[in-house]
Amino acid sequence: MASSDQHQSPETTNLQLVLVHRYPRFGNSFLSKLQTRYRVFDPVDESDPSLLPLSGSVRVMLCLGPTPVTSETLDKYPNLECIVGTSAGYDHFDLAECRRRGIRITGAGDSFSEDAADLAVGLLIDVLRRVSAADRFVRAGSWPVKGIFPLGSKVGGKRVGIVGLGSIGSRIGKRLEAFGCSIAYTSKRMKPNVSFPFHSNIHDLAINSDVLILCCALTNETHHIVGKEVLTALGKEGIVINVGRGALIDEEELVQFLKRGEIGGAGLDVYENEPHVPKELFGLDNVVLSPHAAVVTPESFNALEELFTYNLEAFFSNKPLRAQIECE
Amino acid sequence: MASSDQHQSPETTNLQLVLVHRYPRFGNSFLSKLQTRYRVFDPVDESDPSLLPLSGSVRVMLCLGPTPVTSETLDKYPNLECIVGTSAGYDHFDLAECRRRGIRITGAGDSFSEDAADLAVGLLIDVLRRVSAADRFVRAGSWPVKGIFPLGSKVGGKRVGIVGLGSIGSRIGKRLEAFGCSIAYTSKRMKPNVSFPFHSNIHDLAINSDVLILCCALTNETHHIVGKEVLTALGKEGIVINVGRGALIDEEELVQFLKRGEIGGAGLDVYENEPHVPKELFGLDNVVLSPHAAVVTPESFNALEELFTYNLEAFFSNKPLRAQIECE
């Protein structure tokens, strides 16, 4: 049916405005589809300067990946009401400032939880059973020369302490129970309906664990939650797995513990100063190093796209948002 | 109490005779303990030639690792009644010849099943989520240079076909269910009390699977059970995991499929000509190579030692043996 308002194209009149906030390398694959449904204001793409005056009227931001949203960012968009995020963590948001301005935020919800849990378990098996080290050994042609590869350690029977029993941590627990590990956890609060033993602090958890798996949010309280004391409590055979955020661990301290053999091993997907990984780790056989890849499979990206598409629509039609983050 | 038979030492009179059959590199750690309980006849160790005349009287053999027991081996020990084995596989025994001579054989039973299942799952996560490849990427210093590492594929939702649902295969199924995989299997016979769908042959299983995991025994029937047809049925995105025996796969064919990108990836712990691994695999990022290390953790060796110690005692006291192999 022809519109009676012929002098404006439907592309600009009928479509709602969405601000896309991103690093240039993120999100190109999402944008073209988004542009079929919304008028996309993408400051990274400077090809359409006519959109710039829209800063004052934009009400919703799609924040791709962990692109920082600071108080200065928010100053540019004074009428922002909602940030639709796409990240499992939310340490890139200035939560206090968002709360002050009454801005609602959503995250990736469960979209990435299975991937992150899978990688955490993969890193743990890899460290215990020395899979990556074995692969290096074979590729270097060492098997026919050196013979038997050193023993690994059994997965079953390990006491695994999960730090942060949210949607990722609980999935890690479920998986590792099937391997015969015994699970305990620490978390802000004891969880109802969870049978795993709870420890009120990470130090107690570390003393009672062979393995610590970090999958909690990075906040002021959890910054460097694993340092000298916790590593000492975990002990010489202890293993640390980190699929949370790099700064949960005092990385310098961890490197020293690993170099001195005062801890058994580590499986790391995240680092304090990404993409830089401490070079001292490159020569160690008891660490497995992954480039912040816990949450990148095509299947999860599809789930994520579904979630943020839903949230954008929900925002414009005043329906409840999914996977909303508490700005506490 | 002093023995009345003073001219013989208790070490040689009171202890039962056990033949140890092994490659020189195997089993040194077990031998000293064994010597406290038995008179050990160890042809590899030629320091005591006085034992050689015992070949005719030895009734039980402790066979360490996959040391071959052929008809020629058996000819040397005409009064052998029982072989206490220590291996998860039994393709190194001439089963027909043992049956003909009425020799009973025991294996490793479940001692190694959890380790093998753990490694199978570890290899699968590693191939799907590219863990070893990611570790290489980070150690090579590529992350800051190349940026984002290519996407992996999600574990959950994969259709996993298990070839051989014995003590290893059933443990693999249990673990992968916790990841949200759907499991099916093929086996000599359909298993009672198993809810996983059964396929009567590996070709049907491959057509209906994203992943094939080989954990069956190597026999005449299973030799090269995975060749051109099965790999074609599995398809371009398909993944093969082998923790059974190298010759379950036509290795040359697999290498060609991998090189031509006609299969998605492979996680291999065993090879046709160990310790030699096809060099064409060393340059591929979609394979993970482990040096026949599925069953080596100290915990499993302890369980194994307990089992064969029990079986030696049971043999001499006419009690039922554990983990007996059917020589069919």
Automatic annotation (TrEMBL), chains A, B:
GO MF annotation terms: oxidoreductase activity, acting on the CH-OH group of donors, NAD or NADP as acceptor
Domain named D-isomer specific 2-hydroxyacid dehydrogenase NAD-binding is located at 121-294
Record lineage: Eukaryota, Viridiplantae, Streptophyta, Embryophyta, Tracheophyta
Which family is annotated?
A: Belongs to the D-isomer specific 2-hydroxyacid dehydrogenase family.
Name the domain of life this protein comes from.
Answer: Eukaryota
Instruction: Quote the Pfam families the UniProt record gives.
Output: 2-Hacid_dh, 2-Hacid_dh_C
Species this chain originates from: Solanum stoloniferum
Q: Which InterPro entries match?
A: D-isomer_2-hydroxyacid_DH (IPR050223), D-isomer_2_OHA_DH_cat_dom (IPR006139), D-isomer_DH_NAD-bd (IPR006140), NAD(P)-bd_dom_sf (IPR036291)
| Descriptive protein name | Uncharacterized protein
